[in-house]
Amino acid sequence: MVLQIINDAEQTTTIVPINNTQYISICYTIKPTRIGSGTSYFLLVLLLMFPLLSQAENNKTEVEQQLRSHIFKLVDNWQKLKKIEQIQPKLTLRSSRAVSTLSRCSSEIRFTKKSDKLLGVQQWKASCSSPNRTVMMRSQLSIKALLPVTKETLQRGQVIQPDMLTMQWVNYPSYRAQIVTQMSQLRGKRVSHKLRRLKAIQTKQLISNIWVMAGEHVIIEANANGFSANMKGKALQSGGEGQAIKVKNLSSGKVILAYPIGKGKVETRF
Predict the structure, then answer these.
(1) Which of 21, 79, 166, 236 has a CA positioned 20 to 30 A from the CA of residue 60?
(2) Which residues contact 178 (CB under 8 A, 6 or more apart)?
(3) CA-based Rg of the chain, rounded to a whole angstrom?
(4) What is the third-level CATH fold of 144-208?
(5) CA 236 to CA 102: how far, in whole Å?
């Protein structure tokens, strides 16, 4: 760059006598009107601006780091809400140099977005009140989670058994879906829609396994305040785990609400 500037300059050579010794003095004068001088000036200006550009980039990085911290706090809350033990988030941010102007804010920078979604591509509004500035930023978030999955593809109607399951790192879907995150959610469940091997399982793909059929005889287990008793009954409704069904106590003739806890067994809850 310096060589380019010298090439664009006019050279003046002068012989200067000093202490009986003649020295050659060479002076370069830059002429703005000469061809090529525009390029030289541009490079010179760019060199002078480099510290400013570097500072702007640092300010931009600082604001991006604030947004990154904000998003990871949301991810932490999301993980607790979903009850997922282990996750591997991957976050990418995109923003213009205009973001660097927010570093001059004396008030706190606020990050907001219209969508309540967290995963996928999201548009963020970064703003502060003093001075009044607003800049748009973009994030792209994906999460790998350790989730229960089936070892093999299961067809509709199959009852899920413990030996059919394993824990696997899978990409958590970015679309709105209720995903099974714990093994306990699969206990006593039956497949309503085909489950693909080693893929995240949606709750809508499952139904409770029918443990008690209407009309069959069942054992009623009653437990309260240290008291325990087993009675014979007759199911008036069909049901699976967690479903309240009507059962007739064959000893008293009363109809009670009970909850299936296994094949041919129900319990009362007080």
Answers:
(1) 79
(2) 202, 203, 204
(3) 37
(4) Type Iii Antifreeze Protein Isoform Hplc 12 (3.90.1210)
(5) 67
